[in-house]
Amino acid sequence: MNEFIQRLSRMRANETIRSMVRETILSVDDLIQPVFIHHGENVRNEISSMPGQFQWSVDKSIDYVKSLQDCGIKAILLFGIPEKKDPQGTDTWNDKNGIIQNALRALREAVPGMLLITDVCFCEYTDHGHCGLLIERNGEYVLDHDTTLNNLALQAVSHAKAGADMVAPSGMIDGGVGVIRESLDEQGFSHVPIMAYSAKYASNFYGPFRDAAQGSPQFGDRKSYQMDFANSHEAMREIDVDVSENADLVMVKPALSYMDIIYRAKESFKMPTVAYNVSGEYAMVKAAAEKGWLDEEKIVQEIFTSLKRAGADLIISYHAEMAYKFLK
Ligand SMILES: [Zn+2]
Q: How far apart are CA 294 and CA 287, in angstroms?
């Protein structure tokens, strides 16, 4: 035998020793479950392209969010599907009766201790399905970042007033994080953190989400504001900008095809880093599991652990609710 063989396998001999030298430990504390709030009462609509995920009316969402808490989930990310859409998405800053504001008040009271994060964007609330206000430029309607900023601030402050613990601007609007920070501070919400969707790619993995949130663009696409999936340096610039505008957490979205971006982001900025394991990633696992081609639980555990290994501190995932099964 060659006495110089390096026997790294010695440290893998059994589960005890493997667990002692394991470098990445997944915890339920790392997970955030998205929750879709639908207008109306007594609504529980399963999302066809995301089996096991539902749209809930505010009343029905309470038991669901309690069940998440029972599974150890500590944080949820709320998306709203309002009754009425309009060109501006005015439901988003309707203090009295906005869908998210109603959900925040109900959940705050009924499920104390659950951290309530709100998606801050307009695509589910505008009749055109884009993430802000549109202007006509050279005969084409395009998203206008500057005029959208004011409405973004209105939305974030309204969420904070209704009880949001954290706001998460997802529209990739230039200057958005800074404007939201300034407005929250001015209105007495300097304690509310911002989770910035800093590097959000114009991805084909979002397909099922559009069924879930009913916010597809009615024309065109989002490539003029979300990132080109071919780019990596640009993601670092986007994150740099959001950090300079006082983002508290930065996000990379989607997750699986973007682990290089997650790794670079963590290495470069040392910020609390969030990976969004998106609807298409969920749907792929679900579809394969339904066919018996993959073991869903084991795949989810591996995905979550590898996202952490890549540098993510937190993982937003539709699979978060099943993690209690493998996290003892
Ligand atoms: Zn949007």
A: 9
Dihedral sign, CA of 318, 157, 29, 57? negative
Q: Ligand 1 center to residue 60 CA distance, Å? A: 25
CA of 324 from ligand 1 middle (Å) equals 30
309: nearest Cα among 69, 26, 118: 26
Is 266 designated active site?
no
Averaged in consecutive runs of 10 residues, what is the pLDDT profile of the chain (328 residues)? 85 96 96 97 94 96 97 97 94 96 98 98 93 89 90 98 98 96 98 98 90 77 89 98 98 98 98 97 96 97 98 98 86
Residue 176 makes CB contacts below 8 A (sequence gap 6+) with 145, 148, 149, 152, 169
Largest CA distance in the chain: 78
- Ligand 1 center to residue 125 CA distance, Å? 9
Task: Sort strands 195-200 and 249-253 into parallel, antiparallel or unpaired.
Answer: parallel
CATH class of the region 25-325: alpha beta
Locate the domains of the chain by residue range.
25-325
Asked whether the bond before 208 is cis by omega within 30 degrees of 0, the reply is: no
Q: Ligand 1 center to residue 121 CA distance, Å? A: 5
Q: pTM for this one? A: 0.95
- Catalytic-role residue among 60, 66, 74, 200: 200
Our answer to whether residue 74 is catalytic in this structure is no
